[in-house]
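Sample 3 of the quickstart, ligand S-adenosylmethionine:
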Amino acid sequence: MTKEQFEEGLAYAEENFLNDQAAHLKVDKALIRQKFDLTNKRILDFGCGMGGMSLWYATNWLCEVHGLDIDNHHIKIANQIKAKHLVDNVIFEVRNILEKPLAEKYDYVFLNDVAEHIPLNILKEILAQLGNSLTKGGQIFVTYPPWKSPYASHVTHAVGIPWCQYLPDGILLKMIEKNNMVLVGDEESDLIEAYKGLNHLTHEKLIKAVNGSGLSPVYRKSHCLLNKVKPLKEINFNFFPLGFLVTKEFLLLQKN
Ligand SMILES: C[S@@+](CC[C@H](N)C(=O)[O-])C[C@H]1O[C@@H](n2cnc3c(N)ncnc32)[C@H](O)[C@@H]1O
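Result:
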């Protein structure tokens, strides 16, 4: 990781930590504030990346946060921000839970924008293990951009075309190549790798991954662009054709 990449990652994660209005997690934060009281809870931020959300949980509630990620570079940045802001109630760790299973129990496990990056067969194994790591009544909250979303490709900002995941792969990959950029991290080294690493997650695929894990969905919210109109705020527009306007899916899981 170059010094510039490190600085860029740091600025991005710090913005996610400190600013509730920061673009890609704004809706997540509003919904988490509305649905959860994390006071005195033990939280696992699975796939915490550069730690923005872990630090946000830790400083908005009196709680204990464990942020873990398989990416060494991301955790390095997370630890740097933790030290800079003197946040004591969060611990960051590089860990692959399939190689080193969790022994601890958590009241809440969050997967913010993680599930769409993990191959579905591995996601199934991970969810089963996370289910076993819950305290009695504990819950798992999974948030992700569904594959129909205008931004699901994770490259819209670079190629300038929403829903570009529906372009033929050859054309899209050429467009990404023209606007390619290096990403901070051990695993996804540039936008092309990031795009190829997506599992095209939908609600139906996630439910399939959850089945057999001993977990059941207890709440779903599909955040649609139409929810910005106040009287329509609470409506789930996850049906054809409005499903294409859903930018983020939220699924809350609980042990059976
Ligand atoms: C798009 S980032 C999201 C980071 C953070 N949750 C956020 O919202 O800012 C996805 C993260 O998931 C991590 N990840 C992917 N597969 C993982 C796995 N099997 N175990 C732990 N972390 C994983 C990646 O390393 C990356 O940091």
